[in-house]
Design a protein that fits this description.
homodimer, alpha/beta, Rossmann fold, 2 domains, 4-stranded mixed sheet, 2-dehydropantoate 2-reductase (chains A, B), oxidoreductase (chains A, B)
Chain lengths: 313, 313
């Protein structure tokens, strides 16, 4: 299958590599010039579960994608703030046969994608894989993950299953997931609590987890998310989501010393965050359904204030 | 009048000095040994609106107050976290004739005071005076202010007026204030928004005011305060309180470059904050009256998390 990885950061590089190794024709598109140049010059340098390798995969700079370039599948892996720019760059390459799979964190991406892609070609979901971009053209891949998604418009289940098979054949553990919103809500709980708190309080997951108010903060935010989910007909088990975070994310032996991506963005790199696709998206849904979302409002507003105070870009 | 200033920090020193200069017998009691020693050895060194002076006022270290020591009036000016310890130190000096005026920031101090003082001897209010403690035994007093308070138990208005006269005779601009809760709610709005946000986001008032989300954050918190005030029969005009902060506190020519006291406590000096007497007290009142206080809850929990992460003491 001809596959474009739109956003070849840590996660995009992993997907591109694994799909390439499974025999697909993969192309990277990314907005970071040094990264694209390094991939084209030296190949993608990978440490894959301890094995070093160099893989030749063509890469285009985002605004230099040839207009006659076509792909069967575009996998969107930008940061949420880069999504619209990426779609704009690819718009001439998207036709009625181009399927687009969005695996970005958070909610609300469909509104942007719909402007560029016919709804029946959109597939939405998320992934539990991880990876680290260590520098231009260089990634480190460890561990194991899954991908869950479904077709955005009913009637395209067969096509979703076909895409899932391509991903799973590449070892990406993809599954067509009927209740995709439930899976996405579960994942967003982690982003909306730990990610935000570690950025706001400038700490790692374990140190946040050690505070006496962490449990209440998690409970308040996730209970609010569950109310919004319910209004969408999605069953989010707040207790289970809280338990998952408290037993997995704080452990100093495993993930606890990790600084979540929003900390990396805002504190380490002074970059704007994805807050509007996470807590901000829940606040927006809340307004739509008439569900009060004070915790999401305040967290979103505090992160935006902090972005501005740090002059994040 | 024999007056004990219980808590001889910046504000206590101002009140003690002005009451002493008006002819009252003033004694300081404080928990900071260097400060007490400096006052006793060298006198209180004051810069009062640009005039330097040294004033001899006796000072006791908090746990060395003689048990036969008596005063007509104790003015409480500790930090809220130091209040109970101070009352405990003074308990043997408090009898049925000792009136106690509490001018601490925030709410909820009455619960502690009632354990040590008969309710009919309690007077509660606040002050808009400012002052700076520049070091042990050294204060800088500038500007002008007011004091508002009333008797805690009805029927003691005459005594409240008498205390107000003593303070006003000393130039402290004191007023018996029937709707004292309204005045206290107005003042707490500033502490609950600007103080907390500057501590949480580690910025000054003007920089916080410049963020695009400051107005919404203020509005959300103060609207919640107004709902709790209403349940107590107090009319807090949220719009007026917001307008006051936005027009006075952000101005870079006057107060805007100021780092509020919670920033001084938590960020500059790694001390525990008074959050439980401010946003925490409103959350507690909310639970009592069945008013949801999500904004107060989250701000309180975030500040406590930050105290713990910084190992504040």
């Amino acid at each position: 299958m001809n596959i474009t990885i739109a956003g070849a950061g840590a996660m995009g590089s992993r997907f591109g590599l694994m799909l390439h190794e499974a025999g697909n024709q993969v192309v990277f598109v990314d907005g970071w010039k040094d990264h694209v140049d390094a991939i084209n010059k030296n190949g993608l340098q990978v440490n894959h579960d301890g094995v070093e390798k160099v893989v030749k995969i063509p890469a285009y700079l985002q605004d230099q994608v040839p207009s006659d370039f076509k792909s069967d599948l575009i996998i969107l892996f930008t940061k949420s703030l880069g999504l619209e720019g990426m779609l704009h760059s690819l718009k001439d390459t998207i036709d009625k046969d181009t399927r687009v799979l969005c695996l970005l964190n958070g909610f609300g991406h469909d509104e942007k994608i719909k402007k560029y892609v016919p709804e029946e070609n959109i597939y939405i979901g998320n992934t539990m894989w991880t990876s680290d971009l260590e520098g231009p053209g260089k990634v480190k891949l460890m561990g194991w993950g899954t991908v869950n998604f479904k077709n955005w418009v009913p009637g395209h289940e067969e096509s979703a299953h076909e895409i899932a098979k391509v991903l799973s054949d590449a070892g990406l553990g993809a599954e067509y997931t009927e209740n995709i919103l439930e899976v996405m809500y579960k994942k967003i709980c982690l982003n909306a609590t730990l990610n935000c708190m570690c950025a706001l309080l400038e700490c790692n997951a374990a140190d946040f987890g050690d505070t006496s108010t962490a449990h209440t903060i998690l409970t308040d935010i996730i209970t609010e998310f569950a109310a919004v989910a319910k209004a969408e007909g999605v069953n989010l088990d707040a207790q289970e989501a809280i338990h998952f975070i408290e037993t997995k994310a704080y452990n100093r032996e495993t993930l606890g010393l990790h600084y979540p991506s929003m900390h990396q963005d805002l504190i380490q790199n002074n970059r704007l965050t994805e807050i509007d696709s996470i807590n901000g998206a829940i606040a927006k849904k809340g307004r739509k359904y008439g569900i009060p979302t004070p915790y999401s409002n305040l967290v979103t507003n505090l992160i935006h204030a902090k972005e501005e105070l740090r002059k994040a870009k």
